[in-house]
Design a protein that fits this description.
There is one protein chain. By secondary structure, the chain is α/β, with parallel strands linked by helices. The chain has two domains: 195 residues, Vaccinia Virus protein VP39 (Rossmann fold); 76 residues, no CATH class. It has seven helices and nine strands. A seven-stranded mixed beta sheet has the order 3-2-1-4-5-7-6, with helices on both faces. The longest helix has 14 residues. It is globular, with a radius of gyration of 21 Å. The termini are far apart.
């Protein structure tokens, strides 16, 4: 097994750019409003993690190397950024990690793993991300003798991720520096719901709806339109749908209330998980 801590102690880290990877910057900027609680596995000295933190994400970085983690903590302190760095194996999530993150940020971690460990990578990412969470990454698609880095094709990525994730995008990276130029793909995946997900009573308690105004239950703010209403459920983590007012809002959970107009005015269209339609 690769001795990552020795490589960090001796400075033998050619994958470390000393700055966030340019293609990852573009990807995180695209999804910056939805990063939420983000995990950076194999975070190294924390350049990518700290960029996500600068966008307002609640960032945690894990790395097997205690030397790398110490360097990341020092960098965060020196730059006045808030992020948590822990010496952890991202392929061995604990019970408290299940469904705990909104985003998994990938860069140089996947390609550091021998191909036989890739199924564990997929399962760990699916376990750690909430249903509907995002996996945002820059993947190495070249090849090197022996590895690491271990290359993969776009077809390999699709076959690996599709059972647990829905592909959102994959495009060649055009801003990769140095040895990575022309050998990386930028990809985004969305974690699919699964029967293996924790039951609702084991999830963190849903936030209470806003306080009533004038006796009418308030409804979470969201996109406003004279002809549509939007709904999303934070428990089933489905994406937002816009539906005509005449239709009853729906999510993957059972909905209370059958009359669209009456439910909207009375606030009775709350999902059984405790979340409310957006107005």
């Amino acid at each position: 097994m690769q001795d990552w801590d020795t490589q960090y102690r001796t400075g033998d880290t050619p994958w470390e750019l000393g700055a966030p990877a340019p293609p990852l910057i573009d990807l995180l900027d695209t999804y910056r409003d939805g990063l939420g609680r983000a995990l950076v596995p194999g975070c190294g000295r924390g350049a990518d993690a700290l960029y996500a933190a600068s966008l307002g994400a609640d960032v945690t970085g894990w790395d097997l190397s205690a030397t790398a983690v110490a360097a990341a903590r020092a960098e965060a302190k020196g730059r006045g950024l808030t992020a948590t760095f822990v010496p952890r194996d991202a392929l061995a999530p604990e019970a408290a990690d299940l469904g705990a993150f909104d985003t998994w940020i990938e860069h140089t971690f996947f390609c550091a793993l021998p191909p036989e460990l890739r199924p564990r990578y997929i399962e760990a990412a699916a376990a750690i991300l909430r249903p509907g969470g995002l996996l945002l990454g820059v993947f190495f698609v070249g090849d090197t003798a022996g590895g690491p880095p271990y290359g993969a094709t776009i077809e390999d990525l699709g076959a690996l991720f599709t059972p647990r994730f829905r592909p959102l995008r994959h495009v060649p990276a055009t801003t990769s520096p140095g040895m990575w130029a022309g050998r990386e793909v930028v990809a985004a995946f969305q974690r699919l719901p699964s029967p293996l997900d924790r039951s609702p009573d084991l999830r963190p308690a849903a936030a209470a709806p806003p306080a009533p105004r004038d006796g009418i239950p308030a409804i979470h703010d969201g996109p406003r339109s004279s002809i549509t209403r939007s709904l999303f459920c934070k428990a089933c983590e489905t994406r937002r749908w816009n539906r005509p007012i005449r239709q009853t809002p729906r999510c993957r959970h059972a909905m209370r209330g059958t009359s669209r107009g009456r439910a909207w005015r009375a606030g009775a269209a709350a999902c059984s998980c405790g979340w409310w339609p957006a107005r």
